[in-house]
Write a structure and sequence with these properties.
148 residues, mainly alpha, 5 helices, Anti-sigma-E factor RseA, Znf_put, transcription regulation, transcription, Anti_sigma_zinc_sf
C-alpha cells in the first residue's frame, strides 16, 4: 500500500541541483544598501543610468543618512562651481603658455625617428615585409613619375 501523497509537496519532478557559479556574481547596489561615496557623487552629477538612479531615489526616500550625504555633496558641488567662476589664471601665465606653443620647434618626422631593432622572428619578418612594401611603393611611384 502506498503512502498518501502530501498535498503540500509539488507533484512535478524536482529540478536538478545546480552547481554554484565558478565566479561569484559581482555585488551591485540594491535599494536597501547605503549609497557609497561614488554612488552619491554619480547621483548628484546625474551620471547613474536610469535603473540605478531609480534605486537610489527609492533608497533616499527611506534613508535619512544617505539623504544628508546627497545634500552635503550637492552643497559642496555648488560651492566649487561658484568658486571656479571666480578663479582666473594670471595674464602673464597665459601669455607665457601661448609663447611656448608658438615657439616650440617641430619634432622629427616618422622617417627620422629611430627604429628599434626587431626582437623576435615574427618582428623580423614584419620589419622586412614593411621595408619591402615601402621599397616597392617608392619604385612604382618613381616609375609613374617618369611616364608623366
Amino acid at each position: 500500500m502506498q503512502a498518501p501523497k502530501n498535498p503540500a509537496q509539488p507533484t512535478t519532478p524536482a529540478e536538478p541541483k545546480r552547481n554554484k557559479p565558478r565566479y561569484p556574481r559581482q555585488k551591485t547596489f540594491a535599494s536597501y544598501e547605503h549609497l557609497s561615496a561614488e554612488a552619491v557623487a554619480a547621483f548628484v552629477d546625474n551620471e547613474l543610468d536610469e535603473k540605478a538612479a531609480h534605486r537610489a531615489r527609492v533608497h533616499l526616500v527611506h534613508c535619512a543618512d544617505c539623504r544628508q550625504e546627497v545634500e552635503a555633496h550637492r552643497q559642496a558641488s555648488q560651492r566649487l562651481k561658484q568658486a571656479a567662476s571666480a578663479i582666473h589664471a594670471p595674464s602673464a601665465l597665459l601669455d607665457k603658455l601661448q609663447s611656448i606653443a608658438q615657439s616650440c620647434p617641430a619634432g622629427p618626422t616618422a622617417e627620422e625617428t629611430p627604429q628599434h631593432s626587431p626582437q623576435t622572428l615574427l618582428d623580423k619578418v614584419d620589419f622586412y615585409y614593411r621595408a619591402l612594401v615601402k621599397h616597392r611603393d617608392t619604385t612604382h611611384q618613381s616609375a609613374r613619375d617618369e611616364k608623366h
